[in-house]
Amino acid sequence: MSSTNTTVDAELIGVMENFDRPFRDYYFDKDSNKPLYTKRAGTSKPTKCLFLTTDGFLKWVAVNAGVFRGRWYNRDTSHLVFPRFPIGSWNVGQIRRFENGEIGFSQTYEKALVGIENAWHPTKIDFTKFKLIGQLGDFNLGRLWLAKHPRFNERRLFVKIEPWANSWSIQSMENETRVYQRTYGLNLTPPFLGHVTYNGAIIGYVLEYLEGVETTKKADKNARIKAVKKLHALGITHGCAHHENFLKKGKDILLIDFQESKFDDKATEKLKARDINRIKRIRTDMNLYTTASEDDFVEEVSQFFNDMADDEIDWTDDSTDTEGDYTKQSMNESDHSDYELGCYWRSAVGSQDQSN
């Protein structure tokens, strides 16, 4: 049987940041005025990737340090060549470079995907059934998508998933889904159209993609305070009420991004005041990030990758980060995630719909 009958191609649709990379230690030589590299140091863990196979399955795959050079996770990955994927029901795998120089899978196995529990909306759509137009935002984590689906007459949709199945992402998706349930039909958030699933687990949601909206400006401060007070009246605090988490559609102000929201008795007056004060003060309003308290800390434990180690002990010279990987990185290749980036309608990376 040929390998084409037992393997399929796969598209890389998401890459997680990897801060556990080996690096080359060095000292600065005054005579040559250059850094002299001495040894490899640091811990190494595989880079976490999400693939969509041509036969319609999601695969969570860890890529070892020796496969590709340097910190490639936050850059253009279109030139990377991955091995063909073995067919089968497995959903977790690991890719390494073998002693003969070839790249391939060192292991594959099947593990149950755990999603959120609050399935309040009757509409549920498998993620692999969407026509993905492109990722939204400035990063390639595989979380934010512009998409279409026949159920919605090929209208453009906003799809958000939490594909990395760690404890924090599951809780943040629970928060957002709960907010959309309480605000449903109140014109306080973008219209919620249903849950996104994979193999029966709820991993995200789909919203109406709002054409022609813009993020709010200084002149919209009072309208934003009024909108966030409506949220407070429902027993919810926002948690990250910066200007890009408010959308202006005509005269309406809509709220988005509820990963840090608190509910009922945890939505304290102190947190409500913090939401409002963040809107009032230009310094906090321009800061797109939030600082969680120790009480909110959730250890990031991955369902798929937590026990997976980089099994390549003898790293090749091109498997480590060097000074050049940092100094040559352009401003357009920023090294932070799309966490709390706010308006996902603002830009779409490669999302021009060629079908129109």
UniProtKB/TrEMBL annotation:
Residues 312-324 have a biased composition (Acidic residues). Residues 312-335 are annotated as: Disordered. InterPro entries: Kinase-like_dom_sf. It holds the Pfam family Kdo. This is Protein kinase domain-containing protein. It comes from Xylaria bambusicola. The lineage of its organism: Eukaryota, Fungi, Dikarya, Ascomycota, Pezizomycotina.
